[in-house]
């Protein structure tokens, strides 16, 4: 792609000033809202439970609380994954995914406990055994049967998502099985109203509970379906060209109409769907590797599997759908005037975009770029130009994991490279192993945890 001018050379008019003002929901606020909802759920049970007497009653009420908890938690899980821009920017996708994964485990436990406790409680109250009670509940109430199927689906999704199982599955298989959660939520919904003591005789509670489900369904529909389709039709994205940056890294330049309407910020990523015969069905996440321009976006990708390898063969003019922008790895995380960017391998992509655009005075910006070989230093030429223009310092650390280059990331050496490292906001992106060890070094070098920001390339 020789005819196309790179974003750096054309000069990037970053939209940083307007994006600073975009809405963000801070992690503390999001957790506060989730906790307030949980308290409201317990209050709902409390209001309808004047007293609890005897084992059967205790078990049934424990079943009610866990059931209400599961019904609420599953809505929270879906909301976290609704790709709400203010949540994506303020909390960050990787943290949302971690909350979702942790919440998923609690939800499966709550739903399982609900089924066991409520059946056991009813069995005690009816002076019968648990097997007889289970059969009678499932055969008498169709809604309970649907709820039981929903529990089976949730448990299956939970097992498939467990770390040990996940390692052996293709991403696509795991993702496909995950979609059954929606079916589980739909199947479980009706038994809450037909058999749930908090709802059977209380229309207000039913309306509020339904409103919670409808709101989250609307958010999912809007942000995961309608918005991407709207942008897909309006932006008319096309591949402008592909540049080989190193033996295994390519950059893809994407043009389109009024790309500023995406509201993307340097450091964010999109899920990219390239409409070729081989890869139209997959939407993979790649970060912007240059500050977004109204007429062009760029990604820089290391070829690893089917999707990323296919990028090298994209022809100019190929249609593209981009879903996003997502993630909170942006300049908004800043609180100190000084910024240190640390990249490992292709982790340079979002950091290259930040190097170009993050507000910093002369001498306040440093990039440490780690790679195992010289060839692995993708985008080096343009990084040097940006650094010269912005009076930023750049250190290239090239060598194997046991080399002197790697040792520069140890705390004492890090302090030598960046003497006042403790007074920097640090943006970190690279392979998980490198991120983990550099984070430890930074902590030992005195950087507060809250000032270390990282983007993970693995969900
Ligand atoms: C927020 C984020 C930003 C990223 N930015 C970049 C970037 O700028 N440059 C770059 O080279 N890589 C980036 N990645 C990693 C990149 O998405 C994966 O390497 C790529 O999707 C692998 O797909 P594949 O088919 O080539 O390989 P595969 O061998 O099929 O997948 C390898 C691994 O990639 C992950 N993966 C695959 N498909 C998806 C998907 N649809 N969604 C999420 N994860 C998936 C899974 O963990 C999988 O195990 C980013 C990842 C994330 C999560």
Give the radius of gyration.
26 Å
Structural class: alpha/beta
Kindly report the average pLDDT value: 91
- End-to-end separation in angstroms reads 32 Å
Low-confidence stretches: 1-20
Order of helices and strands: HHHHHHHHHHHHHEEEEEHEEHEHEHHEHE
Number of DSSP strands? 11
Bound molecules: flavin-adenine dinucleotide
Strand adjacency order, main sheet: 9-8-7-10-11
Principal-axis shape: elongated
Q: What is the number of helical segments per DSSP (H or I, 4+ residues)?
A: 19
Strand coverage percent: 15-25%
Q: Percent helix among the residues?
A: 40-55%
Largest sheet data? 5 strands, parallel
In terms of quaternary structure, the protein is single chain
């Amino acid at each position: 792609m020789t005819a196309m001018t790179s974003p750096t050379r054309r000069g990037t008019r970053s939209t940083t000033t307007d994006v600073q003002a975009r809405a963000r929901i801070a992690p503390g606020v999001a957790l506060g809202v989730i906790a307030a909802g949980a308290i409201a759920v317990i209050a709902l049970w409390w209001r309808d439970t004047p007293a609890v007497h005897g084992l059967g009653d205790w078990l049934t009420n424990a079943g009610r609380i866990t059931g209400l908890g599961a019904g609420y938690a599953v809505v929270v899980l879906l909301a976290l994954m609704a790709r709400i821009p203010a949540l994506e920017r303020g909390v960050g996708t990787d943290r949302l995914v971690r909350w979702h994964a942790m919440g998923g485990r609690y939800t499966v436990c709550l739903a399982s406990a609900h089924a066991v406790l409520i059946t056991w409680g009813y069995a005690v109250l009816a002076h019968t055994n648990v097997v007889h009670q289970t059969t009678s509940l499932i055969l008498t109430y169709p809604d309970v049967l649907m709820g039981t199927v929903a529990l089976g689906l949730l448990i299956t999704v939970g097992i498939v998502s467990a770390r040990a199982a996940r390692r052996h599955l293709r991403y696509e298989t795991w993702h496909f099985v995950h979609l059954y959660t929606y079916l589980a939520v739909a199947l479980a919904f009706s038994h809450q109203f037909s058999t749930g003591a908090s709802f059977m005789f209380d229309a207000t509670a039913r309306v509020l509970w339904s409103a919670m489900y409808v709101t989250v369904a609307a958010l999912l529909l809007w942000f995961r379906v309608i918005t991407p389709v709207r942008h897909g039709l309006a932006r008319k994205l096309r591949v402008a060209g592909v540049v080989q940056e190193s033996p295994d890294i390519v950059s893809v330049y994407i043009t389109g109409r009024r790309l500023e309407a995406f509201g993307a910020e340097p450091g964010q990523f999109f899920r990219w769907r390239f409409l070729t015969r081989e890869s139209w069905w997959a939407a993979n996440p790649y970060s912007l590797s240059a500050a977004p321009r109204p007429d062009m976006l760029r990604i820089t990708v290391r070829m690893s599997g089917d999707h990323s390898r296919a990028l090298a063969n994209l022809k100019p003019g190929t249609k593209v759908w981009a879903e996003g922008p997502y993630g909170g790895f942006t300049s908004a995380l800043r609180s100190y005037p000084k910024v240190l960017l640390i990249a490992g391998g292709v982790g340079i992509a979002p950091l290259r975009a930040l190097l170009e655009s993050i507000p910093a005075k002369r001498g306040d910006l440093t990039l440490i770029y780690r790679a195992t070989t010289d060839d692995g230093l993708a985008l080096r030429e343009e990084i040097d130009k940006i650094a010269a223009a912005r009076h930023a310092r750049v250190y290239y650390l090239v060598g194997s994991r046991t080399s002197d280059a790697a040792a520069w990331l140890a705390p004492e050496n890090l302090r030598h490279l960046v003497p006042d490292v403790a007074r920097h906001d640090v943006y970190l992106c690279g392979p998980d192993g490198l991120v983990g060890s550099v984070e430890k070094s930074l902590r030992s070098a005195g950087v507060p945890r809250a000032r270390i920001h990282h983007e993970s390339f693995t969900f």
